[in-house]
Specification:
Arc Repressor Mutant, subunit A, disordered N terminus, 77 residues, 3 helices, alpha+beta, single chain
Length: 77
Amino acid sequence: MHTSPIHEPSASYDPRLPMLLTVDEAADLLRTSRRAIYVMIARRQLPGVVRIRRRVLVRSGDLLDWLRQKRAPSPKE
């Protein structure tokens, strides 16, 4: 019998980061403010947002994937 995992880590999973980041941790990672993170969430600009009751968390793998997609290509690319 084959069982599938509840959540498979994305290709961008970084074992140094928790799977779910707090707003403060996401702000630190993006080098921005808590307020900017909440604005991005309200505008649906931030991927991987998870709401558990009143708590807002961000999936680190989704955030890292999004950052990689947003990066500018280096001159060698």
